[in-house]
Amino acid sequence: MGSIAGAFFLAAFAGALFCRRIRTAAIAGAATALLYALLVLIGLWNLLAEANLPYLLGALAGASAVIFAGAMLAFALRRGLAWLIGRLSSRSPRP
């Protein structure tokens, strides 16, 4: 994964950390992944005629899936940490 994809991964991760619902986290991840794919296609527009399209589309799909998975991971991390902090900060022990 290149540095641009890494930056988009961090943007999706940070965006999903602030989402309260999984639907909005999925939208944040999908929008970031689509923006990454669009940026790559715009950058390679002049080279698309000679490009190996199955390889290019496979690489784009893989990188976009990693960006989307980063957003889902951030949402799960947020929910898990919120549950853990809530569990540890309660004054009375729960059964």
Question: Can you put this structure into words, describing what you see?
Answer:
The protein has 95 residues and is an all-alpha fold. The chain is 78% helix and 0% strand. It is built from three helices and no strands. It has helices at residues 3-17, 22-43, 53-89.
What about the largest sheet?
Answer: none
The N- and C-terminal alpha carbons lie at a distance of 46 Å
Portion of residues in helices?
Answer: over 70%
SSE order, as H and E? HHH
Radius of gyration: 18 Å
Mean pLDDT value:
89
**What is the strand content?**
under 5%
Number of helices: 3
| Number of beta-strand segments | 0
Structural class: mainly alpha
The general outline is rod-shaped
Low-confidence stretches: none
Please give a quick description of this structure:
This protein has 3 helices and no strands. The chain has 95 residues and is mainly alpha-helical. Helix 1 (3-17) packs antiparallel against helix 2, helix 1 runs parallel beside helix 3 and helix 2 (22-43) packs antiparallel against helix 3.
